[in-house]
Amino acid sequence: MVWKATKKVGFGVRGKFVAAWYCYDPGNAGPANTAATPAVYKTNVKKDCLVDGVDQCYLEIALKAHNAYRAKHKEGQALIGYIEASKRIQAGLDAAGSSFDGSIRDSETDRTFENCAENVYEAPSDSTADLEATRKTAIAVDTWYDGQQWYDYATGKPRDVGDADKVKLSNQFANVVWASTTKVGFGVKGKWVVAWYCDAKATPAETAASLQNIGVVCRRGGMNTCLNDVALAAHNEARRHHATPPLNLDETIAKELQLQMDEKPDKDWKGQIELCEADLVNYGNGPVSFNPARCVPTEFYDTANSKCATCCP
To answer: Residue 166: which residues within 8 A CB-CB, separation 6 or more?
Structure first.
């Protein structure tokens, strides 16, 4: 698709198949040609990130992350890159340089983007590792989405309206997933990332609009993805402060846990889940000594072998 020496292309379609032929001038090696040495590949498949003042590589990373998160929410409409907005943001960041104060506003004379919502990310430090993560990963988008923990799905408003920082985090989350938004532009420089969400500005302070635009399908495949996303992010943030490696979500564990919680009637729910010894071994926790008092009813306790005979209900 991107081979520089390609001059012509033709397409055919039949049923569920589409075929393409990429053709080269005589003397030019194609990617399948044995003459296509590593040097030839570097010449023909070089990726230029900076195009017309926009970091296309970062745009691709940030768009992919946004649309993965949006797929979990109402309608799941994917965003498209807004190149004009990206140009304006990047120009503003470049012009501000080290004096950037955390926000770019449209000029007084040209109000093209005045109705776009804005998210801003600032890396924790100017270290090489933090700057690399800012430009080459979706850490900014992940951070904005983590504001979900401060959004109340029941009311459509931030959980703590009296805390300006939590309201800001909640609103950043709303901007990422707002269903009516169709385009987004990005700028990245140093430790800063700025995003503008356009066409339909998020209004998370308005309950009706918020509930309409941030619907979410939490239960997927037998697990609550919303809870798992928020809880995993909170755990790993705490673990980061203790120099502890991050946890990975195991969907098998989450689904089994949710299944057992769903099967127990509310009147029997005691805030604790029983697992068979086999289950615990399967999950890598090793054998566990069971207390017969924890098995309800007690006939589920195997006295001879000092373990639950079956999974406690």
So the answer is: 150, 158, 159, 160
